Amino acid sequence: MHAEFIHEDRIAYFTMEIALRNEIPTYSGGLGVLAGDTVRTGADLELPLVTVTLVSRAGYFRQEIDAQGRQVEHPNPWDPGRFATPLEAKIAVSIEGREVWVRGWLYILKDHMNGREPVILLDTDLDENRADDREITHYLYGGDTTYRLKQEIVLGIGGVRMLQALGFSVRQYHMNEGHSALLALELLRRYAYSPEDVRSGESPYDIPRVRELCNFTTHTPVEAGHDKFPYDLVQRVLGDYVDLAVLKRLAGEDALNLTCLALNLSDFVNGVAKRHAEVSRQFFPGYRVHAVTNGVHPYLWTCPSFIKLYDAHLPGWCHEPELLVRADRIADAAIWGAHVEARNRLIEKVKALTGVGLHPKVPILGFARRMTAYKRADLLFSDLERLKSIARQRSFQLVLAGKAHPRDGGGKQLIETLHRHMHELSDVIRIAYLPDYDMDIALAMVAGVDVWLNTPLKPLEASGTSGMKAAFNGVPSLSVLDGWWIEGCIEGVTGWSVGDSAQSADGADAASLYDKLEHVVLPLYYGYAGDQAAWIAVMKGAICKSASFFNSHRMMRRYATEAYIR
After folding, report:
1. For 194, which DSSP code?
2. Domain 3-295+555-564 carries which CATH code?
3. Cβ-contact 412, 404 below 8 angstroms
4. pTM greater than 0.90 (yes/no)
5. Could you tell me if 42 and 3 are in contact, meaning their C-beta atoms sit under 8 angstroms apart?
6. How many whole angstroms separate alpha carbon 88 and alpha carbon 103?
7. What's the pLDDT tens digit per position in 127-176?
8. Dihedral sign computed on CA atoms, order 269, 274, 276, 280
9. Can you identify the CATH homologous superfamily of domain 304-550?
């Protein structure tokens, strides 16, 4: 069943999470969605990839919001047998001194242009394993530190062995974040020198050979985003897998730092935006960190009305999204008509999910992302009286969405706070919070709102991709200058900045956000002297200058030429 994919050398793309489709909850947020966009684009461009991930049978979680605005988590299991085919090969990894067996499921990601890419989902839920080992691949980002280490052994070490067992010939390994960095240890063992060839004090492994094979994309400048494991735990769970002195030299003396390991054993390392690469070079001095700014998949993140519009005016746009630079030739009425269709679909979805009826003529601001402190979802609500004053002059509406990690108490509190503010503002501003944020809700929001908000604390937004998705649907961003928006913001052309490019300060950023909303964005939307053309010009700017560049096709062509072919 996988034989059609093993006739040529492939790039092995390793990722802890991936958004394959809405019904398969093997992703928690932006990292997984980006992984899905990466593989879809590989299919579009006929790049020979093979993706390795965990089956995550228990999914992430299904989110309910109770009457007090509290997040309630419900299990969200899925049956891989509905969407994937079991593979016959089984491999074993050593965990806590015993063999843990792993099998794979083959999911074939098919794109709209008939491209196909194999995705291997690793699964330990086998009769051969004891009960706790069967659950290693169940919970995405679940469990304690020991559980996470076991998962990363299965992903990295088990993934390399599974590809070999299935007959894949791998020319490069691409680690999407540090979760899969243990694959490099398996490669070290594969390229170990014979004992008689090793001189005293030299490495027993062909480290340069391993480096040639590995690429690493780091996604976070947040300290908590880098997995670290104490060496006593590593030795108990993984054993003496590689020489401990070498491991400490590669992964850190105090603890096994997977980001450090990946940096030291990868020939090509990149951040996901120019600013993020700069921050990463400061975070990890001495390493050469390239910048390959993220992009989003054109076809997946463009709503039906804009797909129809682009197909009619710019045929081939979804394979060559640079053609969107010509979108300014499309008539204003056609752009606006496509947007109204998308907006009406969002209004219907909001009504169905929350009962809130949005007004079809009042601008909608959208904010949706993982709910955690540094994303500052509450920045817009810093001064409720100021916000009410702005809304009384020129009314607007808000649609919010996002999940907090089950163990992120601050993120959960943020959701409660937002709901309290929604109640306090209800007499002036219509606000809806859509529960159980997923890919379908994301597309409805990025296409149906009029302005996309993003207010992270600088410099903690590595890239951000939601605003790129909005741009494909003619929706401009009102965002803090961090991540991709430093590159994408042309003031008044593609959207608007919040604050400046210096360090964030909540008070200054909130004041800037209110000023832009009150004096620039809302007056422009409502039209000076009834002129809507100026607003549509910004919509066209978002398409022509943001969507045409910040797409996954440009991103993957960069990876192909700079990382994969060398």
Report:
1. P
2. 3.40.50.2000
3. yes
4. yes
5. no
6. 7
7. 999 999 999 999 999 899 999 999 999 999 999 999 999 999 999 999 99
8. positive
9. Glycogen Phosphorylase B; (3.40.50.2000)
